[in-house]
TrEMBL record:
<keyword id="KW-0175">Coiled coil</keyword>
<dbReference type="InterPro" id="IPR002100">
    <property type="entry name" value="TF_MADSbox"/>
</dbReference>
<dbReference type="Pfam" id="PF00319">
    <property type="entry name" value="SRF-TF"/>
</dbReference>
<keyword id="KW-0539">Nucleus</keyword>
<dbReference type="InterPro" id="IPR036879">
    <property type="entry name" value="TF_MADSbox_sf"/>
</dbReference>
<feature type="domain" description="MADS-box">
    <location>
        <begin position="33"/>
        <end position="87"/>
    </location>
</feature>
<dbReference type="GO" id="GO:0009791">
    <property type="term" value="P:post-embryonic development"/>
</dbReference>
<keyword id="KW-0804">Transcription</keyword>
<dbReference type="GO" id="GO:0003700">
    <property type="term" value="F:DNA-binding transcription factor activity"/>
</dbReference>
<feature type="compositionally biased region" description="Polar residues">
    <location>
        <begin position="263"/>
        <end position="273"/>
    </location>
</feature>
<feature type="compositionally biased region" description="Low complexity">
    <location>
        <begin position="17"/>
        <end position="30"/>
    </location>
</feature>
<feature type="coiled-coil region">
    <location>
        <begin position="117"/>
        <end position="174"/>
    </location>
</feature>
<feature type="region of interest" description="Disordered">
    <location>
        <begin position="211"/>
        <end position="273"/>
    </location>
</feature>
<dbReference type="GO" id="GO:0045944">
    <property type="term" value="P:positive regulation of transcription by RNA polymerase II"/>
</dbReference>
<protein>
    <recommendedName>
        <fullName>Floral homeotic protein AGAMOUS</fullName>
    </recommendedName>
</protein>
<feature type="region of interest" description="Disordered">
    <location>
        <begin position="1"/>
        <end position="34"/>
    </location>
</feature>
<comment type="function">
    <text>Probable transcription factor involved in regulating genes that determines stamen and carpel development in wild-type flowers.</text>
</comment>
Amino acid sequence: MEFPNIYQDEPESSNNQARRPQQPQEQQEGAGRGKIEIKRIENTTNRQVTFCKRRNGLLKKAYELSVLCDAEVALIVFSSRGRLYEYANNSVRSTIDRYKKTCADTSNVGSVSEANTQFYQQEASKLRREIKALQNSNRNIVGEGLGSLTFKELKNLEGKLEKAITKIRSRKNETLFAEIELMQKREIELQHANMYLRAKISENERVQQHMSLMPGGGSSHSHHQYHQQSMAPDSEPAYNHDARNFLPVNLLQPDHHDDHYSSQDQTVPLQLV
């Protein structure tokens, strides 16, 4: 599709050419091959003729654009006398409504985006100020940057530090007392364990002394069995009525070979406990 060249005159009818005033020869030669200067036509008749020709060409191009490109086209033209000329492949009103809606949506999107940008900028500035204030406060706590503070600000800083020191000392004492209490409990547990071990050692020594008083030092089996019984404080003492746990009484007396055999019937068993 070819678009009209606005710098080139369209062909006119013979009647229009007759009614059109003749331009000076110098202007025709200077224009060259139908080119005219783009400015308001002062002659009323020529202006009206040009308007009609250009209007018809514009309407034709709008129609061709809507058909060839499947575009929604609406054309509104008002002449210098206020006369309306329009063209639309659908409806001029519907096209205008669509145009207004599109402009409103675009405006809303732009306004929302602009509002969001402004909000984030304000928040960023606020956060930067807070960060700077915290940095200055931290520097003041460690004794830096005090030259710019007034007497009142220094007094407030001193009060804050004293309160902080009081809280720190209180927490330190609580932690220390808790550790001392834990160590005392641990000490009591160790003392109980020590007493228990001492009792077991004493009991083991008594068992060994008792076994050493037996003839021959006692059998290893009896010693092991008695040791197991003594190491079980919560259980009932179990007595094993074994013949090896009974000793004749006369064995504790001086050895008389002849009397031993003669008094076998009078032997009284002695049970070890």
